[in-house]
Design goal:
This protein has 369 residues and is an alpha/beta fold. The chain has 2 domains: 330 residues, Rossmann fold (3-Layer(aba) Sandwich); 30 residues, no CATH class. 45% of the residues lie in helices and 9% in strands. The longest helix has 26 residues. The chain binds thiamine diphosphate (TPP) and magnesium ion. Thiamine diphosphate binds next to strand 5.
Length: 369
């Protein structure tokens, strides 16, 4: 029995796909040949979301915003996977993919308006902060209910195929979401119907205070795909080159009609779950230190430096540009007008029914508007 179980375990456990060494080097036989402009776009996207995290967490501690969900430590997993999709493809995000919306052109001002819930916010202050939506960028509204976006992504992929749209759909999820029933529904449906999608699990090893060891008894998350007959790939999520190459291959496979792929991007949530969380209460600082040293930005920077694509002067220029952009966006968002209370009803009804008109007028009077 023991031997049988061991063999089954070995067969099911996929290897970790890595390209970049810690020093930023790439063995010639491992180089995925990613275009230079793509690598630079990924690097800029990763630095952008890191700077935003730093600034917004300070804002939260100053009491200027109520909430922020950080990406720190997961920038390669987020940005390099998102960059592997074409503009026409759709992104169904989980919790930590806001950087992909920015990379797809979401204006920083609009993103921050969502945090402030002002009139410029697409969700008119009716969503939790950090729950972005960006229709023009094919970035679906984020759902707070863990796992629900995965069947949505698979359904959207099915719809695209039925309509004959040449579109691949990304469905993102966290390690915690693999315990949701929606995850299993989506995996089964996707493979049975060969939906043109890529399901991307950012395994940051924590689901708020629940560690991966309590989330699943599987050796890896990638191997969960095996039970559904799907290809599961386990990728070093702090290696931007590996993340991009693995996701790109999965996107091309889906577009060619060869079915979905499940990607496990192994990474780490370096900060708290959100600005409302204190991770020192439930996890060991040594683990955090170990993963902080595996910084995906430093690793990619070493690679770019080694190829002569980046240097301190470029970094300084990018830093200055981002400081300015973020400061302007914060100023705009803080000065933004409040949401018009009328939108409570006019966002739902083209023609406002008389009883709601009456309620609205009474509310406006109560508000002194
Ligand atoms: C159905 C459901 N259950 C519980 C929650 C509360 N909740 C919010 S985030 C979260 C953890 C999610 O962990 P994971 O999927 O690993 O994503 P991560 O936050 O690590 O990116 C939980 C349990 C929720 N939002 N929805
Ligand atoms: Mg997690």
């Amino acid at each position: 029995m023991g031997t049988v179980r061991t063999r089954a375990k070995e067969a099911a456990t996929p290897e970790l796909y890595t390209v970049l060494g810690d020093d930023g080097s790439v063995a010639p036989d491992r180089d995925p040949g990613i275009p230079e402009e793509t690598l630079l776009r990924i690097y800029r996207g990763m630095v952008t979301i890191r700077k935003l995290d730093e600034r917004m967490l300070l804002m939260q501690r100053q009491g200027r915003i109520g909430f922020w969900g950080p990406t720190k430590g997961q920038e390669a997993a987020t940005i390099a996977s998102g960059a592997a999709f074409e503009e026409r493809d759709w992104i169904f995000p989980a919790l930590r993919e806001a950087g992909i919306a920015l990379d797809r052109g979401l204006p920083l001002e609009v993103m921050l308006a969502q945090i402030f819930g002002n009139a410029n916010d697409r969700t008119h202050g009716r969503q939790m902060p950090c729950h972005y939506t960006f229709r023009e960028g094919n970035f679906h509204a984020m759902s707070s209910v863990i796992g629900t976006q995965v069947p949505h992504a698979v359904g959207a992929a099915m719809a695209a195929r039925i309509k004959g749209d040449d579109v691949v759909v990304a469905g993102y999820l966290g390690d915690g979401a693999t315990s949701s029933s929606d995850f299993h529904v989506a995996m089964n449906f996707a493979q049975v119907y060969r939906a043109p999608c890529v399901l991307v699990c950012q395994n940051n090893q924590w689901a708020i205070s629940v560690p991966l060891s309590q989330q699943t008894a599987s050796e890896t998350i990638a191997q969960k795909a095996v039970a559904y007959g799907m290809e599961g790939v386990r990728v070093d999520g702090n290696d931007a080159l590996a993340v991009y190459a693995a996701t790109r291959r999965a996107v091309e496979k889906a577009r060619a009609g060869d079915g979905p792929t499940f990607l496990e991007l192994l990474t780490y949530r370096v900060l708290g779950h959100s600005s409302s969380d204190d991770p020192t209460r439930y996890r060991n600082e040594d683990e955090v230190k170990e993963w902080t040293e595996k910084d995906p930005i430093v690793r990619l920077r070493r690679h770019l430096d080694g190829r002569g694509l980046w240097d301190d002067a470029k970094e300084e220029e990018l830093d200055g540009e981002l400081q300015g952009r973020i400061a302007r966006a914060i100023r705009d968002a803080e000065a933004g007008a409040p949401v018009d209370p009328e939108t409570l009803i006019t966002d739902v009804y083209a023609e406002v029914p008389p009883h709601l008109r009456e309620q609205l007028d009474r509310t406006l009077r109560d508000l002194g508007a």
